[in-house]
């Protein structure tokens, strides 16, 4: 039975799983669950992921959610996945777990905190907390500095100075790509101080081409529309409305 991947290409963890399957020649069926249209809340999907989030997979009778766990499962269960994605060496593996845990506690809180709570959710009438982006704007530069000075230390182009990417490179770069929803100016202001991070994004794109661009096309297709709506929002915010009212 073919592996089923339930995903939305506007979701960064979904894109990481899709790109991983494609780059490793894993045969799968992609089933789109549009989270901005609340499709994750159907009873059928809740049977697959009771948390009502994407991505999730069904492999035969086995169901799994959480993108990091999915990437580890696929790298371990599918023969032919090159070792660098999820090394057999227990020490290298442990380092990957370490950066993946950090991802969800820091980088994702920063990036998603800004993009989801100040752009995606308000624009789509979903629940959001206007205080989250404020905290996230403090967490994100700290996370990017840690990436630049600690995780990307070493001679090779990837995390830990490795010469080839792991599931962690893919996962973290897909997260940062979500910042493409910000205005071009803000995107540049946030990322331009981090030269190693910028180079690492390019290196990861190149190492996972052509699938990286193919899967991210969905993001770029809605980027302009979102950016235009954000421009309108900032015009009205100068008129003194509250943040949430302006975004809506
Ligand atoms: N930690 C989860 C995060 C999953 C997640 O937050 N998915 C978002 C899209 S990026 C979602 O489905 N949101 C819909 C909702 O929470 O209602 C993972 O890595 O898979």
Explain what the structure shows.
The chain is an alpha+beta fold and 248 residues long. It folds into 2 domains: 79 residues, Glutaredoxin (3-Layer(aba) Sandwich), CATH 3.40.30.10; 158 residues, Glutathione S-transferase Yfyf (Class Pi), Chain A, domain 2 (Up-down Bundle). 60% of the residues lie in helices and 7% in strands. It has 10 helices and 4 strands. The chain has a 4-stranded mixed sheet with strand order 2-1-3-4, with helices on one face. Helix 1 runs parallel beside helix 3, helix 1 crosses helix 6 and helix 6 crosses helix 8. The protein is globular. The relative contact order is 0.12. The C terminus is likely disordered. The site of glutathione has 12 residues, from helix 1 and helix 3.
Helix content: 55-70%
User: Biggest β-sheet: count, sense, barrel?
Assistant: 4 strands, mixed
Query: Any idea of the CATH topology of the largest domain?
Result: Glutathione S-transferase Yfyf (Class Pi), Chain A, domain 2
Small ligands present: glutathione
- The value of Rg in angstroms is 18 Å
Number of domains: 2
In spatial order, strands of the major sheet run 2-1-3-4
Task: Tally the beta strands.
Answer: 4
CATH architecture of the largest domain: Up-down Bundle
Identify the overall geometry: globular
Question: What is the SS-derived class?
Answer: alpha+beta
Mean pLDDT comes to 91
Please report the number of helical segments.
10
SSE string: EHEHEEHHHHHHHH
The share of residues in extended strands comes to: 5-15%
CATH class category label of the largest domain = Mainly Alpha
The low-pLDDT segments are 235-248
Question: Alpha-carbon distance between the termini?
Answer: 44 Å
């Amino acid at each position: 039975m073919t592996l089923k991947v339930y995903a939305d290409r506007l979701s960064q963890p979904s894109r990481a799983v899709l790109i991983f399957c494609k780059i490793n020649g894993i045969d799968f069926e992609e089933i789109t669950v549009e989270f901005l249209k609340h499709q994750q809340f159907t009873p059928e999907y809740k049977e697959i992921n009771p948390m009502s989030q994407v991505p999730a997979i069904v492999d035969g009778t086995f169901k799994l959610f959480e993108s990091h766990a999915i990437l580890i499962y696929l790298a371990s269960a599918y023969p032919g996945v090159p070792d660098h994605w999820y090394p057999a060496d227990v020490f290298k593996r442990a380092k990957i777990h370490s950066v993946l845990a950090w991802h969800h506690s820091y980088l994702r809180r920063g990036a998603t905190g800004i993009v989801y709570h100040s752009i995606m959710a308000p624009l789509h009438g979903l629940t959001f907390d206007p205080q989250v982006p404020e905290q996230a704007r403090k967490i994100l530069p700290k996370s990017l500095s840690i990436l630049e000075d600690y995780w990307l230390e070493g001679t090779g182009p990837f995390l830990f100075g490795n010469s080839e990417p792991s599931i962690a490179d893919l996962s973290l770069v897909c997260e940062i790509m979500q910042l493409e929803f910000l205005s071009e100016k803000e995107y540049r202001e946030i990322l331009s101080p981090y030269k190693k991070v910028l180079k690492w994004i390019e290196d990861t794109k190149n190492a996972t081409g052509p699938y990286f661009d193919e899967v991210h096309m969905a993001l770029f297709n809605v980027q302009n529309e979102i950016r235009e709506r954000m421009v309108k929002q900032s015009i009205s915010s100068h008129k003194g409305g509250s943040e949430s009212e302006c975004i809506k």
